[in-house]
């Protein structure tokens, strides 16, 4: 129970075990091929057992507790009475660069909901993996933390994720693998000071050729990407928006929404290319 309490609160020990809570996430964990150390059921949570029976191996320990004790260790306000201890996959930079890579790098994205949503979009739109990077004393929320895991709807358990890598090291690895790097910026004009002369033009998503090895940099919700990373990118990309209909309009898209739009365009181009050559 102590291990479940710590894991469901987002604490990760030396073994890297994470806690997942809720029927959907436990089902995703059991079906992901990852090592599941144990499943915990409350008295009322037992009714969900048939939902996961098709992916529940006999080797997985099933523990039971009362509804009161489960509620005391749960991270959610209305727990479903099912949780699991899971060993996430140990991803490397190389594992993000399989096939024709499409890597999403989160740089100082602090909101766990944004991190989880971006991971979910990355899987949905065919990204090869995600890297999370700290920058300028701003860390990126742990993709395996409770809120991020719930927002990812299980995608964090399936997609290769490298957490806590230095952006400098990541960029060097991407360069060595000849991956084109695109820095997402808020608008076409306000970020010109961050770019080199060779990058004086900011590109819209459909102008970029996403069919080759690509990496997309997504920055902090308020500050955006650090200047040095914007300058180091091969190009900047922004999402054109409709003209505001009121004096005070939307300044820019939410980080998760922007990443989803850009990843969708990358998938659209890649699917169109495959259809053309098939």
How do you describe this structure in short?
This protein is of the alpha/beta class.
Notes on the structure:
It is built from ten helices and eleven strands. With 278 residues, the protein is of the alpha/beta class. It has two domains: 2-87, 2-Layer Sandwich (60s Ribosomal Protein L30, Chain: A); 93-277, SPOUT methyltransferase, trefoil knot domain (Alpha/beta knot, 3-Layer(aba) Sandwich), CATH 3.40.1280. Helix 6 (112-124) links the parallel strand 5 and strand 6. The chain starts with a helix and ends with a helix.
Sequence-ordered SSE layout with sheet pairings:
Elements: H1 2-8, E1 18-21, H2 23-30, E2 35-42, H3 49-52, E3 61-65, H4 67-73, E4 82-87, H5 93-96, E5 102-107, H6 112-124, E6 129-133, H7 146-152, E7 161-163, H8 167-176, E8 180-184, E9 202-203, E10 214-218, H9 227-232, E11 235-237, H10 255-277
Parallel strand pairs: 2-3, 5-6, 5-10, 6-7, 8-10, 8-11, 9-11
Antiparallel strand pairs: 1-4, 2-4
Helix pairs in contact: 6-7, 6-10
